[in-house]
Amino acid sequence: MSPDVPLLNDYKQDFFLKRFPQTVLGGPRLKLGYCAPPYIYLNQIILFLMPWVLGGIGTLLYQLGILEDYYTAILSGGLMLFTAFVIQFTSLHARNKSVTVERMLTTDILAEEDEHEFTSCAGAETIKFLIPGKKYIANTVFHSALAGLLCGLGTWYLLPNRITLLYGSVGGTVLLFVFGWMTLCIGEYSLIVNTATETATFQTQDTYEITPLMRPLYIFFFFSVDLAHRFMVNVPVLQQLNQLLHILFIFLPFLWALGTLPPPDALFLWAMEQVLEFGLGGSSVSTHLWLLIMFFISAGTAVTSYFIPSTVGVVLFMTGLGFLLSLNLSKIGFVFKLNVIRHRVGTKSKTLPNCSEKQFTWKEYLFYIIVLVLALLETGLLHHFAGFSQIAKNSPQAILGYILMVLFIILWILKEIQNVYIFGIFRNPFYPKDVQTVTLFLEKQTRLAKIGVVRRILLNLVSPFAMIAFLSLDSSLQGLHSVSVSIGFTRAFRMVWQNTENALLETVIVSAVHLLISSTDIWWNRSLDTGIRLLLGLELQETSCHTAEARRVDEVFESAFEQEEYARVCSINEHFGNVLTPCTALPVKLYSDARNVLSGIIDSHDNLREFKGDLVKVLVWILVQYCSRRSSMQENVHKIENKGKASLIVLPALNTPPQTESPEDTDSLNSETLDDWSDDVFGEEPTIKKGREKDQLKILPGINLPIPGSVESQRVGNHSTGTVTENSLYKAIVLGYPAIDKGKQEDMAYIPLMEFSCSHSHLLSLPEEWMSNCLPNSKVKEMSSLFPEDWYQFVLKQLECFHSEENASVVVEEIAKDRVLKDFYVHAVMTCYFSLFGVDNMIPSPGHILRVYNGVLPWSVALDWLTEKPELFQLALKAFRYTLKLMIDKASLGPVEDFKELTNCLEEYESDWYIGLVSDEKWKEAVLQEKPYLFSLGYDPHMGVYTGRVLTLQELLIQIGKLNTEAVRGQWANLSWELLYATNDDEERYSIQAHPLLLRNLTVQAADPPLGYPIYSSKPLHIRLF
């Protein structure tokens, strides 16, 4: 921050002078931003000193010998209780009274919320300003009762004779009496009159009025120690603590104002987490529920170890529980629950993790069990046979201490070698100088990777076993039924696995101290932070302060990772004094987002004409590929279940039954059916009219003739099972027979028999639901001329499902010559084609392309037929999107030379691309599955152009740094105070206080909400250490 820029400018100074005294005094607003009548300030002073007056009455009666001390407390508490109810019900009456309050016009935005018009000293508007009151009646009663109890105990706590007995000084008594009552008045005022804006905040909104309880809560803690001292005489520790707290009591207002003491809603959770982390060897957790669970389990471990009568039992119990509690129990519970669900379902669901993850998880379980057994054997045998020994230069524990020291030094050296800077000052000569590309960086980092593997083995396997051996030989374990031993060793045996690096440091320090002073009565429990690793967040709008600090971050990383090859081998860190220290660079998979304008491509007449021909080819390729995969599934199931019974062949589920209706044969379709489907790009999805009978394929029930080539999809109840038997792969079908009266359908049986000419054609046969007819004969004849037979023959010859058979080429040739199979494909492909373009067969417009890409098709009889077959509809839509991508690639990269190149292109779309909509769930799934490329078509209404969005997966080097621990904690600790006073409601908060050396702006925004900005991240990830 520049010395010319003040910390508080003029308007902030005025705000500070209003807000800070209010926070210190607990709520009285003794300075307003406008001219207020004197009685406003006088009333606040009277309300503030009221507890002192009521307590002073009882104190005077006690000093005069009229009342005993406890009667004095009861009298003062009763008077305060009555006064508190009067104050609260006066506020309630004023709020219920209808009063018109005129607001004063002002040009000062900062003071606008504070200005009121007052008419009288005891008017309703004055009372509502002085005593806002409580939101809930229950809090009105509870806070009033608490105020009476606070005043009664406070009077007893601050009796002059009592203070004189503690210190034996009249001057000290007067000082503690005056400022002690000031503290008590501050607590009473915030409880029953008006609550100040507290510096320490935990919740963004005080829904249940917990903030008024903060100051009384801490006051009651001081009272509790004094009461314990009164009733537990001859306890020197309590007397010394009571003397100390009486002095600290008068400094409570400043501790509250500076935000040193946490609010009550965070106090217990925070204290519980600190005890869990520093007292019981645990770690921070993400939820309150999990915090409670881990705290009680960890505390129960320490309590249980206290009552175990055997030292061997204590060691084994602490070792086993320490290892188990160090594991990610939430992840283990989730995997166990997942396995139970899998066992009950009996099959793998798409929503469950894949089988490889399950197998790896069981390997991890097995590894943990082996480590646990080895740890128990080591500690049990060493503790039983080696026995206890005082620390000496040749004792077993001393030898293990030397080993741990050497191990600590080796790990520390290996850790420094992994960083770009050694000690944060000298550049590591083994670290790659230029880290611009991922491939080159990984090649140069091979040696460092090997060193990292060695360090990981030493840290995660060797060090824990060495430390539990050291702990099991400690003579302090002889002192059974000791609180210090139970807590200390519970923490130690858990930290060995929970935080190995810190545990190794602590064990080395303890071993060194034991060897130096030859005493086993000292046990140090220290926890040293190794730095806070942050993901820095930014405001939604970048300002000049961000630019200054972000530029400095770039300079720090560039000087560390982007050096010329001829640079000095061991250079000095130019930014050594910066709060940010570069550590390393890691390759991370990221998606690049490119958005292109498709003008000149999607609106080209030539491209759109080629689009129609390409669509037929893509439809043929997709349907043939689908049927070939379907036949492969049949063969696999047949091989598994071929045990003398009819084998079931599992097929892709089909949600619709075969149709049994056929319309009249007409020569043409009325074009008026398409009138409601306009070319408006952003129009609503058209309403599909259904006014005609559908010309469908009829499969008569009860007929089961042995005609090769037909596949039956059996039904169970109302659901298609998608399974057929091996003996029912032949079925009689009827294609395009005349109209049948619905009432006489059961009596009609027109069955023209059409037999496949090749016995293998059934392997590529379409599902029977797709063979039904919906178009007139004239359209059926027109379809045949558009079908690319040469492309159809080529696609069949490229299939891989026949390569495993003998005479595969002969089989493919026979299938390709099968006219019946080809007619089925002609029918299915061209029906989908007319469904996508309409029956007029005109060149589509760009708006038409966009609508169909989004799944909005023009209505026609063919569309009704297609929408009744959801799986075929999705395949047709997929083919349409592939064709669009093909058109864009041909316009950008050049035409497709031959069928082989076209096949390679479609195979690449199938394996490496997801072509769809950004709003689809499958788009998210493709990102999670790390698809190499994703494509989506869009439209920019502001520019009036069609756009294409391409996500490309690539590996980039992400530079990682470490922020100085104390610098970050210092800024965060001061954050709330600065938000309230140094910056108040400035829109660009912390812009003036930006500091490139401390990265103050970025660090402050990375604090937890509500003080900082939220950082959006994924759910916690489970990272295996072994």
Give short descriptive properties of this protein.
alpha+beta; four-stranded mixed beta sheet; two-stranded antiparallel ribbon; 6% strand
Beta-strand content estimate: 5-15%
Largest sheet: 4 strands, mixed
Structural class: alpha+beta
Number of helices: 34
Organism: Camelus bactrianus
Subcellular location: Membrane
InterPro entries: Pecanex, Pecanex_C
Membrane topology: Multi-pass membrane protein
How would you explain this protein's 3D organization?
By secondary structure, the protein is an alpha+beta fold. 53% of the residues lie in helices and 6% in strands. The protein is built from 34 helices and ten strands. The chain has a four-stranded mixed β-sheet, with helices on both faces. It has a two-stranded antiparallel ribbon with strand order 1-2. α18 (446-472) packs antiparallel against α19. Residues 99-113, 347-359, 518-535, 537-542 and 637-753 have low confidence and may be disordered.
Task: Give a quick precis of the structure.
The protein has 1026 residues and is of the alpha+beta class.
Would you spell out the secondary-structure blueprint of this structure?
Elements: H1 10-25, H2 38-63, H3 69-96, H4 124-130, H5 137-157, H6 160-167, H7 170-192, H8 214-231, H9 236-249, H10 252-257, H11 264-279, H12 288-307, H13 311-326, H14 329-345, H15 355-386, H16 396-418, E1 421-422, E2 426-427, H17 438-444, H18 446-472, H19 483-498, H20 500-517, H21 544-561, E3 580-597, H22 605-641, E4 648-650, E5 715-716, E6 719-720, E7 723-725, H23 777-786, H24 789-797, H25 808-816, H26 819-837, H27 846-853, H28 861-867, H29 870-893, H30 899-912, E8 913-915, H31 921-928, E9 933-940, E10 945-963, H32 965-973, H33 975-982, H34 1000-1005
Parallel strand pairs: 8-9
Antiparallel strand pairs: 1-2, 3-10, 4-7, 5-6, 9-10
Helix pairs in contact: 2-3, 2-5, 2-7, 3-4, 3-5, 5-7, 5-8, 6-7, 8-9, 11-12, 12-13, 12-19, 13-15, 13-19, 15-18, 16-18, 16-20, 18-19, 18-20, 19-20, 22-24, 22-26, 22-29, 23-26, 24-25, 26-28
